[in-house]
Structures are given as structure tokens and as C-alpha cells.
Amino acid sequence: MSVACGIVGLPNVGKSTIFNAITAAGAESANYPFCTIEPNIGVVDVPDERLEQIHQYITTDRIIPASVKIVDIAGLVKGAASGEGLGNKFLGNIKDCDAILHVVRCFEKGDIIHVSGSVDPMRDVEIIELELALADLDTVNRNIERVSKKARAQDKEAIFQRDIFEKAKLVLEAGKQLRSVDWKKEEHEALKPLFLITLKPVMFVANVGDDDLEGNGALPTRVREYAKKNHAEFVALCGDIEGEIMRLPPEDRATFLADMGLKEPGLNRLVRKAYDLLGLQTYFTAGKIEIRAWTIHKGDTAPVAAGVIHTDFEKHFIRAEIYSVADLLQHKSEAAIRAAGKLRAEGREYVMRDGDICHFLIGK
To answer: Is the pTM value of this prediction over 0.70?
Structure first.
């Protein structure tokens, strides 16, 4: 399953710095607006200690974690929806992402130019959200025009679509994000083909200074409270520190983190929260060739999970043999799990659990 998160924010808030640290892809990061023109794309592993736990008891040739695609989209400015700062081009790149990582500057470092001349995270959030809403409003208006002719001819589907689009228009004109509305399933399905930006889940990423790594200062606290009020995720991290961590040899990172008073890189938390933001979970396959983490949606059934490996597996699914990571840690081997009666045979109706380890039986 391919999953993409787009990083957005004003110029020079630390988007590319954070992207570089996440992906180690070397995206350009500089102290001037629009240094990122085309979106930078990287794939980052989802940190999961369970892979090594499985590897303790199952010998394998390779270990493959789940992954998330991260898209570093150029900085937006006020007026982006009407083309300022190449805004239309940048906004178009966001539409293809599944979720938004909204980076907000929450540090006062004086040698970094702020596009507005001062540091005010809530002003910055308002600017970005307004531009995203205006871009969506343009999309909605165009689609209202598209379906109105058929609606006037009493086409039932067109009437339904027009009414939903009109509802979305009222939300956007009120200055709200579409995700703030509790849409019915059929309404959400009608809006889905429009790839509306403000309907996507969002996580606010407070880029803090090295003197506030936990994000407890006044600036990140305002963003945290705003995220909570708007049912969004929040994570605080220092882009510069995260970059230093990622540049260190893996064997030196633990010492650096301990010296900084950190248990793990902030980026680990960011990636895991991004994974949760999209309502995703992980199951595993484990054998001699590979131990692998697979990404599925919460609530997916066993045949759907099998289909992530190969589309034919869902169609020809017969059953799954399943046990948990906890079972493996307790019994030490699959044979012992089977002997203890913990290896479960599950059919087509089984709803997958996070951390299931599976063998699928597939017909022809």
C-alpha cells in the first residue's frame, strides 16, 4: 500500500530541514524563500521494534519495514491560491498526498529569515489554512458548475453531488477546513474524487529551538492547543537537532540522544503519528526469505490484507494462520505456538489486528 504525506508551511519554517532529517535524501535547504521549487520525494521506514523481536526467534535473509512516502512541497505564501509565489503549482502537489504535515516555526533564532518578518505560529497557521481553503473553494465552485446542468435536468446523482458541493462551499466560505465537518459516508464518497486538500487529515509539526526540545514553550503550546481543539495530531521536534542525529553513525546516536535527554529521535514519533493519522496498522509475514511489515487500514479483513501482498491473493483467499508477536515472545517458535494451541485459523470475515503474524493459504 502506497501512502504519501505532504509537508506544507510558509517558506523558511524548516520544512526541507525536517524532510532531510526524515529521509536523508538531501533536499535543498536554504535561508531564502522558494528554495524548493519542485517537490522533493523520499521514502521513510516506519520505526517498529517488533521486527527485531520477531527476528530473535525466526531466522531470515532480510528484514523489510513498512514505509511512508514523504513529499516536501515548496513554501506557500499569502495569495498562493491565486498564484502568488507559484502557489497554484505548489497547491497542486498537495492534492496527491493522503495526509498533510503542517510545519510551523516555533523558534526565535534570529539568523533565519521569516517571510512575514516576525515569528507568530498562529498567524502562520491561519495563512496556510486560508490558502488551502481558497484552493478547495475554487475546486468546489468548478465542480458545482460541472454538475449543475445535469442537476437542472433532474439527474438524481447530479442533484446529490451539487447539494454536497454547495454544502462544502458554505463551509469553506465560512473560513473552516472541510475536515472539521462530520460528513456522512455517502457525502465523503461524493467529495473524494475532488481531492480536496482541507478534507485530508493533518498533523501540526512544531519546529522548536534546541532550548525547547519537548515543545513546552509558549509558541509550540499555542499550536498544540489549536491542534487538540481541531482534532488534529501534534508533534514537536527540532529540525536542526534531528538533522544532526541522522548525520551521525547509527552506533553514536544513542549516546547523542542521552546527552540531549531524549529517549528517541523526534522523527520516530513523527513517522509513527503520521502512520496513525491515516488510520493505518501493521501486520507481519515471517519466514526464511524475509520478515516483512505490511501496511493496511484499521478494520481491514484477512482477504484485504492478503491482497496487499498480491491482488490475486484477495480473490483466491482461503484462510489465514495467525498468531501475535506476544505469542512468539512467550513461546519462542512457531512450532511451540502451534503446540500451545495459539496458532489460529481465520477465515474471510476475520478483522486483522495490529501486530498479527500471518501465513495465507491461497487457492488457484
So the answer is: yes
The answer to whether the CB of 42 falls within 8 A of the CB of 69 is yes
Contacts of 61 (CB under 8 A, 6+ apart): 288, 289, 290
Nearest Cα residue to 298 out of 349, 354, 356, 358: 354
**Three-class SS state of 265:** coil
Q: Are 46 and 1 in contact (CB under 8 A)?
A: no
Query: Identity (one letter) of the amino acid at 45?
Result: D
The full DSSP string for 4-23 is EEEEE-STTSSHHHHHHHHH
Distance (Å, rounded) from C-alpha 236 to C-alpha 213? 7
pLDDT given at position 225: 96
For residues 284 and 295, what is the distance between their CA atoms, to the nearest angstrom? Answer: 9
Closest to 75 in 3D by CA, of 13, 28, 136: 13
CB-CB neighbours of 137 under 10 Å:
18
- Could you give the CA distance from residue 228 to residue 130 in angstroms, rounded to a whole number? 19
Distance CA 246, CA 157 (A): 52
pLDDT in tens, 13-22: 888 888 888 7
The helix (H) or strand (E) run that includes residue 321 is: strand 317-324
Long-range contacts at 138-141 (CB < 8 A, ≥ 24 apart): 138/81, 139/194, 139/195, 139/196, 140/165, 140/168, 140/169, 140/172, 140/194, 140/196, 141/169
H/E stretch holding 159 reads: helix 156-173
pLDDT for the residue 32 = 41
